[in-house]
Design brief:
The complex is a heterodimer of chains A (about 425) and B (about 425). Chain A is built from 16 helices and twelve strands. With about 425 residues, chain A is an alpha/beta fold. In chain A, the strands form three sheets. In chain A, strands 3-2-1-4-5-6 form a six-stranded parallel β-sheet, sandwiched between helices. Helices cover about 35% and strands about 15% of the residues of chain B. Classes of the chains: A alpha/beta (about 425), B alpha/beta (about 425). Strand 12 of chain A pairs antiparallel with strand 6 of chain B, so a sheet runs across the interface.
Chain lengths: ~425, ~425
């Protein structure tokens, strides 16, 4: 067995039931990428994320949502009204052969199902129940209404992201939420860590190994993901300040973002050591840009006024960077051993030979679209090939209802009755 | 100061003396990682009960620079390697040993540790382990069941395999930097910290734990070549898909919601200096509740704002008017008032806010006081979930914050490798440990 087969099939035979809303969908995607059989339960109207854009169609269509596709890759869809009595019975039966239940949403909604999950764990002690809620199932904020944006605010990410203040140190630009769904990414990554830990825990003793109940708080997860911000306050009572395109800090730092000849940006930061000065000098010489870095005058300036020397050095780097395209800067700087990179659009990586060689993206065709789209599918290789992949795209609403219910032992008649009751 | 209690130096338990069943009970991890991404992966494994042995050395080239970065715990020797608050927060629950890997004797000891381990995590510069003849192909001959996690900026295969990277490099290349910020012509705001140092650690931990599950079934280990940049690509949302369909470069949206007619949706200034509140109105009902709570001002009852589509179409005006209103409001009072009406609202909390003014984090025990042998007891960020059964503790097996440099040399070399005190003393004398 090669490593790719090993890890992409690590969860082969593991059945995950995913309930709830968009807050937990990324956890199901990650588990599916490792081979889990992820069964997504959707009400008759479909998951809320089916109504989020952008859409591949000209008009909003729950079967054409790119948001739904991205966050539901590799799953099966079962249409089920879980909060109806008959729906609860179906869920209970499905749970008898499941390994994991993920339920994401507001704590008050999940409260209604906790008793059922407890009963399911009594009949299937190996079941792992993982809830993902804005603040966890207890605490004074448990019933707050939240979104990805408000979670990134409360959890501290936004306080570190944004633009430089004005010269008078006041900000006239807001803190920034750095992209969509990151609060949910962070929470779901922690949920998967907890679930995989529980799967290991279950295997400690094959005879008595039991599952667990895991209560993930999105707020706590985001709050653990702000690097130096909390230690700066806890140890030194310093609050970090937002800065454009670089790390927030307790003091101002030199710029990292620089414009290039093609109107793009590169992240060009320096450690101001002799090595970096030598490399920049070489690059300036190669580009034919006049400079005085090797002169006695510059060396004297560096001794007399390091900040003035840095300023002049930084200006020369601006000139250097402006003489090349972003990709030229990236590759030439890396060839010299600088940690610089072009600020790419995410889609520019799809055709990059590096990511193609690693299989970072996986082409998948969704029904209703006459072409493949490349989806991010893996973050690792076994040295040659990607270690995770998706067995299918995102499901159509209820696409697997019959298949899953039959596998769980429901007869055709039972399925027909449930359909007649509007439960499935 | 924010230090929770003064305490005696920590007295960690020795390895192999686990007191209860933990998810990763019996899993020994050799931790050859530095800075944040790698240590975050092993932090998670330690939290889940693995016996994580952190291997370090004093030489400037080998030293984990994080030991020297600010913030430092106050007092003590200025050049101490044991006082960094960030290092302490990233490395709790681990044992710490020193080992001079640049010497053949050091590498021999390392191989003996590998023979007794389940997992190796490392994030050395490209090619370093191979130069020491300690790459996966060499180490699996010593331990066929070894799970070897190698973390790098770009990945160890592909055309950029020798490129150098830190968190900001990976964030720029992956697209995450570009996507964060106000629309052009404003430049990208990017991330104000190395987000991918955190996330890469999370993916490292989950890959290792799944490899361990596999190992239980097959007895086989594996090699995992984890790329920090690919973690960024994985979390770039729907951007790559949309760009493939439209052929247009991914734009930036500031704090607005690109996927639905949610408005107002942004950060609005409040009364104090650099104090902000976020609002994310998803439905007309929420908007009506919001308008009623703020006193139904004329501007909010404007017909243009009656429907979600109208609010989205006139978002510039809506944001300007809302900011005029919020700028005289207390941020926490407004949040509580709106939340009472079911309107999604959240204060932009700084670290000070989270540490001092967040009752939720306090009640859930988000900050775990853990002892450290040199700087006493400090709050450490805990794992963000509660467990009904499993003992999951950020202090790990030692029940302690980060180890001091080489703090557990005696215990580890004695208990894991069976070395005598005399041998350990000689190794110390010879500058090998």
């Amino acid at each position: 067995m090669n490593t790719e087969a090993a890890l992409s099939a690590a969860l082969d035979g593991t059945v995950v039931i995913e309930n709830g809303d968009e807050r937990g969908e990324f956890a199901g995607v990650l588990l599916a990428s490792f081979g889990a059989d992820v069964i997504k339960l959707e009400g008759r109207q479909g998951s809320p994320s089916r109504r989020l854009g952008p859409f591949s169609s000209s008009q909003p269509d729950p079967e054409q949502s790119l948001c739904f596709w991205r966050y539901n890759l590799g799953k099966k869809s079962v249409r089920l009204e879980v909060d109806q009595p008959a729906g609860r019975n179906v869920l209970e039966r499905l749970g008898q052969c499941a390994d994991v239940i993920i339920d994401a949403g507001e704590a008050a909604d999940i409260d209604r199902r906790l008793g059922l999950y407890q009963e399911m764990r009594e009949s299937n002690p190996r079941l792992i129940v993982c809830t993902i809620t804005p603040f966890g199932l207890d605490g004074p904020y448990r019933n707050f209404k939240m979104t990805d944006l408000t979670q990134l605010a409360m959890g501290g990410v936004m306080a570190s992201c944004g633009y430089d203040p004005r010269p008078d140190t006041m900000y006239d630009t807001p803190p920034i939420a750095p992209g969509m769904w990151h609060a949910y990414h962070i929470a779901c990554e922690h949920a998967v860590i907890a679930i995989t830990a529980a799967l290991n825990f279950r295997e400690l003793d094959e005879l008595t190994g039991e599952g667990d109940c895991i209560d993930v708080s999105i707020h706590e997860a985001v709050s653990t993901c702000t690097e130096v911000a909390l230690p700066s306050y806890i140890y030194n009572e310093k609050v970090v300040q937002r800065q454009t395109g670089r790390h927030a800090g307790v003091g101002r730092t030199p710029p990292w973002l620089r414009r290039t000849k093609d109107g793009r940006y590169v992240k060009a930061f320096l450690f101001w050591g002799d090595r970096d000065v030598r490399i920049i000098t070489e690059m300036l010489n190669e580009a034919g840009i006049e400079h005085d870095l090797e002169s006695d005058a510059y060396r004297e300036l560096a001794e007399r006024s390091p900040s003035e020397a840095h300023k002049r050095f930084s200006t020369l780097i601006d000139t250097l960077v402006l003489s090349m395209t972003a990709e030229e800067v990236f590759h030439r700087a890396q060839a010299k051993g600088l940690l610089w990179a072009s600020v790419r659009y995410p889609e520019e990586n799809i055709d990059d030979p590096h990511f193609q060689a690693r299989g970072t993206f996986q082409p998948i065709r969704q029904p209703g679209l006459d072409r493949d789209l490349s989806y991010p599918a893996s973050v690792a290789t076994d040295g040659k090939r990607r270690v995770t992949a998706f067995q299918r795209g995102a499901p159509r609403l209820g696409e697997h209802t019959q298949e899953v219910l039959k596998q769980a032992g429901f007869s055709d008649n039972e399925i027909s009755v449930l359909a007649g009751q509007g439960v499935i | 100061m924010a230090q929770t209690t003064q305490s005696e130096p920590a007295k960690p338990k020795s390895p192999n003396k686990s007191v209860s069943r933990r998810p990763l009970e019996g899993v020994r991890v050799i931790d050859l990682t530095k800075i944040v991404a790698g240590p975050n992966a092993t932090r998670m494994l330690a939290t889940m009960g693995a016996e994580v042995i952190r291997v370090e050395w004093h030489d400037q080239r080998a030293l984990d620079l994080l030991r020297g970065v600010l913030p430092k715990a106050p007092g003590g020797e200025a050049d101490s390697l044991n006082r960094s608050g960030l290092f302490n927060n990233i490395n709790p629950g681990k044992y710490g040993i020193t080992l001079n890997m640049s010497l053949p004797q050091g590498r021999d000891l390392f191989k003996r540790l590998i023979a007794k381990a389940a997992v190796l995590c490392e994030n050395y510069s490209p090619g370093q382990m191979e130069r020491w003849e300690l790459g996966y192909d060499s180490l699996r001959k010593i331990n066929p069941g070894l799970v070897y996690l190698q973390i790098s900026g770009m990945g160890k295969s592909g055309t950029y395999n020798d490129y150098l990277s830190v968190g900001p490099t990976a964030q720029a290349l992956s697209g995450l930097t570009h996507m964060s910020g106000l629309p052009a012509p404003m430049p990208p705001a990017g991330w104000g910290y190395s987000y991918l140092n955190h996330s890469t650690g999370y993916y490292g931990a989950m890959h290792v734990m799944l490899a361990l599950l596999n190992r239980r079934r097959t007895g086989r280990g594996c090699y995992i070549d984890l790329s920090q940049t690919e973690v960024g690509v994985m979390t770039s949302g729907t951007a790559t898909l949309e760009a493939q369909l439209t052929g247009q470069p991914t734009p930036r949206y500031g704090n607005r919601m690109p996927a639905a007619d949610w408005a107002p949706h942004g950060a609005y200034p409040c009364r104090g200096p650099d104090e902000w509140i976020t609002l994310a109105v998803q439905t007309d009902e929420q908007w009506q509740a919001c308008v009623a709570e703020i006193g139904s001002p004329d501007w909010a009852r404007d017909a243009r704002f009656r429907t979600a589509a109208g609010r989205k179409a006139h978002e510039d005006d809506l944001d300007r008017l809302m900011a005029e209103f919020t700028k005289s409001e207390d941020r926490y009072e407004l949040m509580h008032r709106l939340q009472k009406q079911g309107v999604p609202a959240g204060v932009v909390q700084t670290a000070a806010d989270r540490y001092l003014r967040d009752p939720q984090l306090k009640e859930r025990g988000a900050f775990v006081p853990l002892p450290h042998s040199e700087i006493g007891t400090w709050p450490i960020e805990g794992f963000p979930a509660k467990f009904h059964t499993m003992p999951v503790e950020v202090g790990g097996l030692p029940g302690r914050a980060a180890p001091c440099m080489g703090e557990d040399n005696d215990a580890v070399y004695r208990d894991v490798l069976g070395l005598t005190p005399e041998t350990i003393a000689q190794l110390r004398e010879d500058w090998i440990i």
